[in-house]
Amino acid sequence: MIFSFIIGLAVGSFLNCLLYRLPKRKSILGRSYCPNCLHPLSLLDLIPIFSFLFLGGRCRYCRAKISLQYPLVELITGLLFLFAFIQLSYEFPVYNLRFIIFLLRNWFFISVLIFVFIYDLKYMLIEDIIVIPSIIVIFFLNLLGKIPFSLIFLGGITGLGFFLIQYILTQKKGIGEGDLRLGLLLGINFGWPKILIVLFISYLIGGFVALILLISGQKKLNSKIPFGPFLVIGSLISLFFDKII
Ligand SMILES: [Zn+2]
């Protein structure tokens, strides 16, 4: 169980690397370095969370502040991986084949969600290079986990169709193409009819936050708010507060 947390920390560290390098279209191979002084980082600087705490949140070489995003993403990924393990252990015998399949699926899905959350907030963009392969991976893991094809298919169509209708109605203004593919991914993951709950919760939270931003004057009626983060939160709530099937 503790391994789930440690694997999550490592994956979180990889997500940070991806979040930093993907927008710059840099290879994910090659050594990490400080974005401020460009000094290559040693293994000691790369231990999730501990390096950040040990170094007091500053670069060892130039003392520039390290973004809080790094330890936060690591910690949240670690905790969610641990929760996924605990939740599944209530539904399946631990280390039974379906337990392993759904653990892998949930870990993978959680990683994609965390990535989409931060990337969409920062760049108002949902990366196809992440979402499209994820759709395929999740689809096959669900089939392996013996979720009926019809439910996966219907879920996917619902997730995609829901955004496609808005996409056409708003003439591409409100909804981006990235949202269409994210809708498909969520539908494939949750299947029918759970995707309906996910969409409902996401819109509830999205509407609530938009209202607060409007009232507090931080956003105007016509300003753009990325919708991806709300879909991520709706998904995480549905993932952890409902049964797998
Ligand atoms: Zn530095």
What does this structure look like?
This protein has 9 helices and no strands. 66% of the residues lie in helices and 0% in strands. It has helices at 2-21, 50-54, 69-91, 97-123, 128-144, 149-169, 177-190, 194-215, 228-240. With 245 residues, it is mainly alpha-helical. Zinc ion binds at residues 34, 36-37, 39, 59, 61-62, 64.
Number of helices: 9
User: What's the N-to-C terminus distance?
Assistant: 23 Å
Amount of beta strand: under 5%
Number of domains: 2
Overall residue-averaged pLDDT value: 91
Bulk shape = globular
Helix content: 55-70%
Please trace the helix and strand order, writing H or E for each element.
Answer: HHHHHHHHH
Rg, rounded, reads 19 Å
Derived from helix and strand composition plus strand pairing, the structural class reads mainly alpha
pLDDT < 50 stretches? none
What compounds sit in this structure? zinc ion
What is the β-strand count?
0
Largest sheet geometry: none
Task: List its traits.
binds zinc ion, single chain, 245 residues, 9 helices, 2 domains, mainly alpha
Structure summary:
The chain is mainly α. 66% of the residues lie in helices and 0% in strands.
Topology overview:
Blueprint lengths: L1 H20 L28 H5 L14 H23 L5 H27 L4 H17 L4 H21 L7 H14 L3 H22 L12 H13 L5
Helix pairs in contact: 1-3, 1-4, 3-4, 4-5, 4-9, 5-7, 6-7, 6-8, 7-9, 8-9
Bound molecules: zinc ion (ZN).
